[in-house]
Specification:
- It is a single chain.
- The protein has about 140 residues and is an alpha/beta fold.
- It folds into 2 domains: about 80 residues, 5'-nuclease (Rossmann fold); about 55 residues, no CATH class.
- The chain is about 55% helix and about 10% strand.
- The strands form 3 sheets. A 3-stranded parallel sheet has the order 1-2-3. A two-stranded antiparallel ribbon has the order 4-5.
- Strand 4 and strand 5 form a beta hairpin.
- Helix 5 crosses helix 6.
- The radius of gyration is 16 Å and the shape is globular.
Length: about 140
């Protein structure tokens, strides 16, 4: 198993640099298992959603779903990523000030990771506390 950094994942997804994108694609296609950690996935999504790429929610859902279909890609916690993807899919924008804001995939992942840790510790997950109004619409989140 190898692990890849966010920049390798982004070159693979974006195919925006001939030399680096070819190397990233070759690396992902040639290895038995390629680990994408939760941090790498989250950084990649923040980058894709950011000012430069402005990926939509639908595009993020498609990217993560497609990564699951890649035979060599292995997620640090695939089951939790999949659960977070389904939670994120169901979020709807809420009014925050004068704008509409949707919860982010990382919001859903933070919630699902906290549930997984509680389960692994045989403890009760009593909620994820957040000031983020959009994230507060997700079941399992609470206002501090």
């Amino acid at each position: 198993m190898i692990a890849i950094d966010t920049n390798v994942l982004l070159r693979y997804l974006l195919q925006d640099d001939n030399e680096q994108s070819k190397k990233a694609s070759k690396l992902i296609a040639s290895s038995d298992k390629v680990l994408i950690t939760d941090v790498v996935l989250t950084e990649a999504i923040w980058t894709l959603r950011g000012k430069k790429y402005k990926a939509s929610k639908e595009q993020i859902l498609l990217v993560v779903s497609q990564l699951f279909k890649e035979p060599n890609i292995y997620f640090e916690d695939g089951q939790t990523i999949w659960q977070a993807l389904n939670v994120y899919r169901q979020t709807v924008p809420v009014k925050v000030g004068t704008k509409k804001k949707d919860a982010d995939f990382p919001d859903a992942l933070i919630l699902e990771k906290s549930k997984t840790v509680a389960d692994n510790e045989n403890d009760v997950h009593e909620g994820l506390y957040t000031f983020d109004l959009a994230a507060q619409q997700i079941d399992g989140t609470k206002k501090p």
